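Progress note, project year one: complex with adenosine-5'-diphosphate-glucose.
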Amino acid sequence: FERVDWRPPRQRLLVVANRLPVSAVRRSEDSWSLEISAGGLVSALLGVKEFEARWIGWAGVNVPDEIGQKSLTKALAEKRCIPVFLDEEIVHQYYNGYCNNILWPLFHYLGLPQEDRLATTKSFQSQFAAYKKANQMFAEVVNGNYEEGDVVWCHDYHLMFLPECLKRHNSSMKVGWFLHTPFPSSEIHRTLPSRSELLKAVLAADLVGFHTYDYARHFVSACTRILGLEGTPEGVEDDQGRLTRVAAFPIGIDSERFVRALEVPQVQDHIKELKERFAGRKVMLGVDRLDMIKGIPQKILAFEKFLEENPKWCEKVVLLQIAVPTRTDVQEYQKLTSQVHEIVGRINGKFGSLTAVPIHHLDRSLDFHALCAVYAVTDVALVTSLRDGMNLVSYEFVACQDAKKGVLILSEFAGAAQSLGAGALLVNPWNITEVAASIGKALNMSDEEREKRHRLNFAHVTTHTAQEWAETFVSELNDTVVEAQLRIKQ
Ligand code: ADQ
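Model obtained:
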């Protein structure tokens, strides 16, 4: 007999997220250049071998004309991406407005914006209407590309209405929804004018996932307190006895990609250069998107306090703060940038010398190889988010530290504190005195203790990977749907 290498066809996975993993730039009327923008979600799903993934999302550009839409759809198809076209007004109201001005701060415990709370109910309502409309537009693209048996995985706070839109159209579709931010305490969620509608829309999914058990618990208690539904150990049950499964699925990173990168000659050269550049100094590192939730001003103020209390360290330590600007058209983010620049300038003026300054602040993103080199030469990483769904920077740092065994100072308000808490020094980022003391502890830590702490974290980061996260979520979604069908038959 001839051996036939037959494998069953892989299940199709439709990943729906606000942004596609590619950025499109228009070169002419019908030609586009596409660049992969590798974020956490992209690298998580690139590693997933079991499913045949397709992406559905907004390409980040306004394409009002038919020629442009057709040519972009064709170009994206080669990357297994399917675009949702949103016009400028929708983007303004849905993305800048409802997503980034209302849900993002609320879910990170920063409350609702003052102006909406006071008077502009009209603007709140129009933003919410645009949010629902945008979610419906995503749903139409999913419906148009769905094939029986596909798994549909909706991502994040931008698409809380999507499960309901999809199930209304086709109740047998397998729909999962995952939140990348924290889900706040029900007392916070209660303040949102559209609190019930959003919860009900998410509950239409078969499986709802969060990074931590706490976020899942907050969601279930919001459903019980606000909607009066019953919370069970499996999830939330509605009046008809239909169960929405709710569980924690902590994300990870593609740790091997980071470990391998450290062997690349270009990265090794860069490591050597950085070591020479900072010889005689301990390197402390912050890598964040420049966002209120990341606690950048608090981190720098804690560093200032440390220098004030430990003047002998002034010439022996440097803080590299690499902050990628995001949402630059939003006033609050512009204010944050100026505030950070002002604090950095003041501290460098106070503690710097003619030849060196204690803080190197960069307002930009680093490419992957440069980022790995910086992680590898760091002695102490400072992740001081005021709130953070998980925080992948802490994982990436640990993955690059097997030679140096540096210390991670980690906010107890980042989801990562639940997984890396045993090896990291946990801090309350609001307590500047405590963070300053932890900096001292980290810089003076014995080799033995650093090694012990690093081992714990490295073992976690290399075993709880992005691939494992995605596969666990999707197989749990498949099982949830099968169990629900069995329940109905009984
Ligand atoms: P983010 O808020 O973007 O993600 P994070 O998890 O830290 O936060 O991921 C940021 C990513 O951007 C990392 O891969 C990091 O390497 C990269 N990055 C950040 N600053 C950079 C810089 N200056 N240069 C180069 N790269 C930089 C959201 C949630 C998180 C959650 C993730 C994934 O807010 O809490 O962990 O989604 O679910």
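The first strand starts at residue 11 and ends at 19.
Residues 39-40, 180-181, 251, 287-289, 322, 324, 365-366, 371, 388-393, 396 surround adenosine-5'-diphosphate-glucose (CB under 6 Å).
No further modelling is planned for this target in the current period.
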